[in-house]
Every structure is written in C-alpha cells, then in structure tokens.
Amino acid sequence: MTAVLAVTATVAAATPAQATGLTPGDYVALGDSFASGVGAPPYLESSGACLRSEDSYPRTWARIHSDFTLRDMTCSGATIADVRAGQMGALGARTTLVTITVGGNDDGFTNTVRTCLTGTDADCKAATDLAAHYARTTLADDLAALYTDIRARAPHARVLVLGYPRLVAEGTGSCGAVGLSAAKRQQVTHNADHLAAGIADAAGRAGVRFVEMRLPFLGHEACTTPMKNEWIHGVSADVTKHVQIFHPKRYGHAVVYAYMLSAEISKL
To answer: Of 65, 247, 253, 262, which one is the catalytic site residue?
Structure first.
C-alpha cells in the first residue's frame, strides 16, 4: 500500500489539470470491470453489481484533478451494448474528457478464461483463436462505430481508449489455485494481442486516442514468479474472489492505469 501511495503521488505531480490542454468540465468514464476497478476492493456500496472501486483509474485521476466533475458510468460486466444503453446518456456538450475500456466481454472474456482454466490445451486454443478472430473483425467494427458515436455525443471532448494488459505471464510460475500449461498461457497472450490490435484499429478509424496497456504490465502479469511481483490477480480458491481473477490488483488500477492515463493526457 505504501508503494501505491508513493506512485500515486507521482501521478499527481506529473500532470496538473491546467497543463493538460483540456478545458475543465465533465469527465465521463465509460466501460467495464477494468474501468470500474474490479480487483481493488472494497467496492462502493452505491455502485451495486457494477463494483466501482475508489481506486479505479477514473476515480484516481478525478481525485487529482478536482476541477473536473467525474461522471462514473463504468460497470463490471459491461459490453458495447451496455455502454450504448446505460452509460452514454452522461455525455453532452459539457463533456471535455471521456475515457473508456470495453470490448473484453464482447470478446468472450469469461468464457475464454473458464475454458482455459478448466479445459484441455486444445479447448483453450479453440476458444482463444475464435476470440482473436472476432477481435480483429466484428469487434473492431463495433468499437469503431461506438467511438464515433461517443465523439458525436460529446463534440468538445477528448476521447481516450485504454486497452487491456496481457493477463498471464509465460513460463511455469504459480497461478494460484489452478495451474496453466505453457501452451494455454501462449494462447491467452495470443488473444490479448489480437484484442489490443482490434481496439487500436477501431480507435484509429474513429479518430480517438488508444492507450496501450500491455507494455506497462509486462513482467507483472498473473502467474509471474515471484508472485509478489504480480499486478494482476491469479486464481483464488475463495469463491468470493472469483470476480477478480485476471483483473488488475489495486496497484494495477490506481497506479499503472492511472499513470498511463495521466501520461497520455499530458500529450494533448
């Protein structure tokens, strides 16, 4: 926790709001569990099943930049359709900053993780290959359309799309309660790389900024040896913690994601 606070202070010092090139206004945060902060409990009671954490990257950035008004619409489990139906209503003429992380659930995150944890190497390959193809085709098209619509609804806003990290480290390090073969780990990484490529392609087509999250987590994924170096949760036998499997830990959300957001905003 001390390390989290120390690097969060670095984030705070790095980019004062008046130096970002952004006009203070509404900051609308959209997206799924990687945006809401799943993996960094406790969650705000008022957020219910959306599982919003005070250590999510939107809330961390907003605490530092108090001249922006955060409208946190993020929700665990959200898909593109959910963003359209339940989150985009917060956008408007006063919106000057939008962040979004979405697409992993559309790409079958839960099914792929379950298959790779419980199935054979061949089962995992089939699931991740299908997801990788979807990410580069249908998902990229759907995300490009979503980002374009966000720009239309918030014409004065800068839109930043934060991607997903690779979830697991290669090698044979422990993943917690369940092991993953080297072949499965390669397939999970293969899918993560295609997901990142699909999101980046969509962002480019829509004219919004993509923030790469694979490199910042490199060497700190789940199943890293030693485990103390992990910034992403491995597999827990505790059923109450299953929701956080392969999600960033508090450090990953409040420091790594928040720092990358601040660093990208400083370029605007």
So the answer is: 247
